[in-house]
Specification:
Structural class: alpha+beta
Helix content: 40-55%
Number of strands: 4
Radius of gyration: 17 Å
Shape: globular
Low-confidence stretches: none
Bound molecules: flavin mononucleotide
Mean pLDDT: 97
Strand content: 5-15%
Largest sheet: 4 strands, antiparallel
């Protein structure tokens, strides 16, 4: 699949085939794609938790207000921001902005890499951070910012989420 096919084929997958495993080498490829993302000052203010344990995935699904597909996917990657890593060089701007931009860039690359690997995933951002941190027993410096259930999509993509037309969201100067 070339880059544009990957971009065009990505959509939020919320139904997974529980029988199709995602091998460790594939997860490593996804993480490699994630850590290739640009970061402010190359601070790489992140940590990734790979969760296969069903009880923990159930805990994450509960923390995400019952988004059960997190437990259905064979693996979930939890992207955590390390705000102090960014703040070390950039102070408040690093703490409040860069670490979130950096982890968002990594998240997008992981999701695209999943598509390139014949898989799918969903960016889950609606969850109780404290509950997710408790379930994962996170060190206090890691803030969970995205839960990414990954697996083999089940069924057809269905109706794709629409986008606003480009002329409404882009301005061309000069
Ligand atoms: C920051 C962020 C948070 C999101 N949180 C959730 C979520 O909690 N649950 C969910 O099912 N989808 C979530 N999504 C996925 C969006 O709903 C989805 O990307 C959007 O509707 C466009 O659809 P598409 O990804 O299929 O193109 C989130 C996406 C982003 C970027």
């Amino acid at each position: 699949m070339d880059f544009w096919q990957v971009v065009d084929n990505r959509y939020s997958v919320r139904s997974f085939d529980p029988a199709v495993e995602v091998p460790p080498q594939t997860v490593e490829r996804l993480l490699q794609a994630g850590i290739r993302a640009p970061t402010a000052g190359n601070r790489q203010p992140w940590h990734f938790y790979v969760v296969r344990d069903l009880a923990v995935r159930r805990g994450l699904a509960a923390a995400a207000y019952g988004q059960e597909f997190i437990a259905q996917a064979p693996v979930a990657i939890v992207v955590c921001a390390d705000a102090e890593q960014s703040a070390g060089r950039y102070g408040q701007r690093g703490r409040e902005l860069y670490c979130l931009q950096d982890t968002a860039a990594a998240t997008a690359q992981i999701l695209l890499a999943a598509v390139a690997s014949g898989l799918g995933g969903c960016w889950v951002g609606a969850f109780d951070e404290h509950e997710a941190a408790r379930v994962l027993d996170l060190p206090p410096r890691y803030r969970p910012v995205a839960i990414l259930p990954i697996g083999k999509p089940v069924g057809a993509p269905g109706m794709r989420a629409s986008r606003q037309p480009l002329e409404r969201v882009a301005s061309f100067i000069g």
